[in-house]
Design a protein that fits this description.
Length: about 550
């Protein structure tokens, strides 16, 4: 499985030495011992052990006799936690007089179908290379490479938004843009500089300043706007020139873990999903280097031919030519196989994009028809609502029926919610109805726009809770009572709305729900009496 791929183009006389120092330092860490520069540049196989005791094997390929020198290091080692997985890190270098290209590829080989997908991370050797390039006297990133190794910033004025929009809409843009916004309190859930370091040469990270103008941003960036702590990943335009934004709210980011490394890893996996195939094609292949090395040895044999007999020379020449032709044929077959697979992948991706475009158009048509239907049924809905509101008392079940009837395209009222509502004796139905309407309208809209808990507090005040108490979360029985079946799967519904704190069920109701970000629907799993809680221990006198 391809995990990570990248390609850097460097310039300057100090670039080769910086690269060899970086690769040598990284290999010392991976093998438990260092290799002298001469060995680092020589073909061969070496065994070692990582610091945690995991065995590792290094294979070196070189073809350094020509004007352009080629090197490749392929390191293999088993996963320290799962022996059914093997990690393969491949580094390739092509060094000429004016520039140096270095490619990185990380892959895994799974020996069992039961192995979980690997987590995505940037190999440490990339950081070693970046640091050594910065320290070198004459080494730098090429201006021809993608200039995405420094964080950008917007929010100082309208020109900054327009400049970003121009970058976003470039038809030849080959890199995703990751837009990071501050929370309403001015804090950042993602460290933009740390994230850019992880995404060097893969994606451009853009930080929204804490004092940005939201109205100005929305007016200029439109659907590409990001705020309230959310992150927006803007992939490259597809063949229809459609831009593909992918927004994650503050709640999503918090769910990835507390550490910046965990959050950066999640973003890296989303970015490499788009960039891996492109950079994998650019990689400097070890098999090509082996092929060049064999060709160079053949040339060397020709130079030595004057020192051997004609018969011996002819014998060696035929033998070497046969071997070279065999390797060329194998390499050509492999190259054709890879090209065929890449063509199949391109074809499938084009079909996927076609289906996405058709699906996008169908969804627009469906939404238009739904709006028309809603408009045509408006009188019916009004009559339905009036009948209920004329009732002296609205029950919890009445409230759910109203919400389902009027806002059925925005919410999914589960049978478990109706069952709990039937048993409820809650008497303040109009208060509950107002709360449910806010849930499926204003709160739902804030979630669609990347809002989180802070927006919920503005909408519901203290009547909103993003999570249950520690005593509930630490008890399997009571946690289980807050898990409901939705769309064929079990979902935790710890988010809830509350009315009343009294033990009197006539004055108290709790509404537990789940946000389906994919369908953009609020799923209500419970609307009734307070779900069970651990009993408080009585104090001893």
């Amino acid at each position: 499985m391809l995990v990570y791929a990248n390609h850097l183009t460097l310039e300057g006389s100090g670039a080769p030495d910086a690269i060899f120092r970086a690769v040598g330092g990284w290999l010392k860490e991976q093998m438990g011992r260092g290799l002298h520069l001469a060995k680092l540049k020589s073909e061969g196989k070496h065994d070692g052990n990582k610091r945690d005791g995991t065995p590792s094997t290094l294979r070196i390929y070189t073809a350094s006799e020509g004007a352009i020198e080629y090197y490749a290091w392929v390191l293999k080692h088993p996963d320290k936690d799962d022996r059914d997985r093997q990690w393969i890190t491949e580094i390739g270098v092509e060094s000429g007089s004016e520039k140096l290209d270095i490619s990185f590829v990380v892959q895994t080989e799974e020996m069992s179908a039961r192995v979980d997908p690997p987590s995505v991370s940037r190999p440490r050797v990339v950081q070693y290379v970046v640091e050594n390039i910065k320290k070198a006297d004459d080494a730098r990133f090429s201006e021809k490479s993608i200039p995405v190794y420094k964080t950008k910033q917007i929010g100082e004025g309208s020109d900054s938004y327009r400049a970003l929009l121009a970058d976003i809409e470039k038809e030849d843009r080959r890199y995703p843009i990751v837009l990071v916004s501050p929370t309403d309190e001015g804090e950042y859930l993602l460290d933009a500089d740390y994230l850019q370091n992880k995404l060097i040469e893969l994606a451009q990270v853009v930080r929204v300043t804490s004092n940005f103008n939201l109205d100005e941003m929305k007016e200029i960036l439109r659907e590409f706007s990001t705020y309230a702590g959310a992150v927006n990943i803007l992939y490259t335009p597809n063949k229809f020139r459609k831009l593909r934004p992918l927004r994650y709210s503050a709640d999503n980011i918090n769910s990835w873990g507390d550490r910046q490394d965990d959050r950066a890893s999640e973003i890296l996996s989303l970015v490499t999903r788009e960039t891996n195939r492109f950079y994998y094609r650019l990689r400097i292949r070890p098999e090509k280097i082996a092929q060049r090395s064999m060709h160079q040895r053949s040339e060397e044999l020709l130079l030595k031919s004057a020192k051997i007999t004609a018969g011996k020379y002819e014998e060696e020449r035929k033998k070497n030519t046969h071997e070279k032709d065999m390797w060329l044929e194998i390499a050509e077959d492999k190259s054709k196989e890879v090209d065929e697979l890449n063509n199949q992948i391109d074809k499938l991706n084009d079909e996927i994009n076609d289906l996405k475009e058709k699906n996008y158009q169908k969804n627009n048509t469906i939404e238009h028809l739904e709006n028309r239907l809603k408009s045509e049924k408006n009188d019916e809905n009004i009559d339905f609502l009036i009948d209920f509101l004329c009732q002296e008392n609205l029950t919890a079940l009445n409230c759910l029926e109203i919400i389902e009837k009027i806002y059925g395209n925005k919410c999914d009222v589960l049978e478990t919610a109706k069952k709990s509502a039937r048993k409820s004796t809650f008497e303040e139905g109009r208060v509950l109805l107002r709360q449910l309407i806010l849930l499926v309208t204003k709160y739902r809209e804030s979630l669609i726009n990347g809002g989180g808990d802070s927006q919920a507090k503005d909408i519901f005040g203290d009547d909103y809770a993003a999570m249950e108490s520690e005593t509930v979360m630490e008890n399997k029985k009571f946690k289980r009572a807050r898990i409901f079946e939705y769309d064929g799967r079990m979902e935790e519904m710890f988010r809830h709305l509350k009315i009343g704190v009294s033990s009197d069920e006539k004055k108290t109701v709790r509404t537990h729900f789940y946000w389906d970000g994919e369908k953009k629907v609020i799923a209500i799993g419970h609307c009734g009496k307070h779900l069970p809680l651990p009993k408080r221990r009585k104090r001893k006198n």
